[in-house]
Amino acid sequence: MMQAMVLHAPGQPLRLERRPIPLPAAGELRLRVLACAVCRTDLHVVDGDLPLRTLPVVPGHEIVGEVEAIGDGVNGHAIGDRVGVPWLGHTCGHCAFCMAGRENLCDTPRFTGYDRDGGFASHVVAEADFCLPLGDATLDAAHIAPLMCAGLIGWRSLKAAGEGVQRLGLYGFGAAAHLIAQVAVAQGREVYAFTRAGDAAGQAFARSLGAVWAGASDEAPPERLDAAIIFAPAGPLVPLALQAVRKGGRVVCGGIHMSDIPAFPYRLLWEERELVSVANLTRADGREFLDIVRQHPPQVHVTTYALQQANEAMADLRAGRIEGAAVLIP
């Protein structure tokens, strides 16, 4: 039997359940979960901010697992391999977006821990083609798990910010920002970190990871930014970030959910500033980011919890008590 923390209705605590260990279908892998990080998207799923398409469901999409069983037709994986399982769990492969190499915008995707059961469990089944081989990754499972979404979305957001960006602002210094800040610093960029007002510990944390400046999100940075990435799910940050970037600068919204953006004067967008969003990720993003991690291994700050403490971990994340990422260890 396996164990899983299961969501039966939005806004309710997850329930610990025992289930039969599943068999992988054709094209699938069954994994013994070694670690699963807790993402803010999991909060949006559990709290009902995202419309739930499948219930009951096991959340969790930042999974590191060991291959235990292999379905028919799977090549390139062996029993005992370590793989990562990200948010994007399936694409159709034939819609206009998939055919154009933009599978993150697939018309009929399936997402791990949302449309199909995820990693808040001792075992999980995933499509082999969407599992990322971890190979010789030197980090342990708990420190790799946050890379599977916080890292990947951070990487896609950094690419969306633009190649010529030197001064980069990060709004919300949580799991994604603490990882991508280190990548940006390694690339020779200046990082400016924005946290909740009064969060001296978070600002010190950002500076310890290479930020040249850290302050409250409603403060003006000492220099105009070339671009800014908003990881916090707070719409009021959008006009603040637009105000902080230079002419021709870009603001990237990196989350899957955000509270409403308030009205703001056109002058904040004028002078060819851009406001863009990032949706999901591609398998190419995963391969690129893991190559970057091998070249520049980040400090991954984690707080670990037992599987049965999933509700506690989410409460700590919701209240802003986590420095870095929360990770469940079955």
From TrEMBL:
Its cofactor is Zn(2+). PROSITE patterns: ADH_ZINC (PS00059). It comes from Variovorax ureilyticus. NCBIfam families: adh_fam_2 (TIGR02822). The keyword Zinc applies. Belongs to the zinc-containing alcohol dehydrogenase family. Signal peptide: none annotated. SUPFAM superfamilies: GroES-like, NAD(P)-binding Rossmann-fold domains. This is Zinc-dependent alcohol dehydrogenase family protein. It comes from the Bacteria. Pfam families: ADH_N. The lineage of its organism: Bacteria, Pseudomonadati, Pseudomonadota, Betaproteobacteria, Burkholderiales. Keywords: Metal-binding, Oxidoreductase, Zinc. Residues 26-135 form the Alcohol dehydrogenase-like N-terminal domain. InterPro entries: ADH-like_N (IPR013154), ADH_Zn_CS (IPR002328), ADH_Zn_typ-2 (IPR014187), GroES-like_sf (IPR011032), NAD(P)-bd_dom_sf (IPR036291). The keyword Magnesium does not apply.
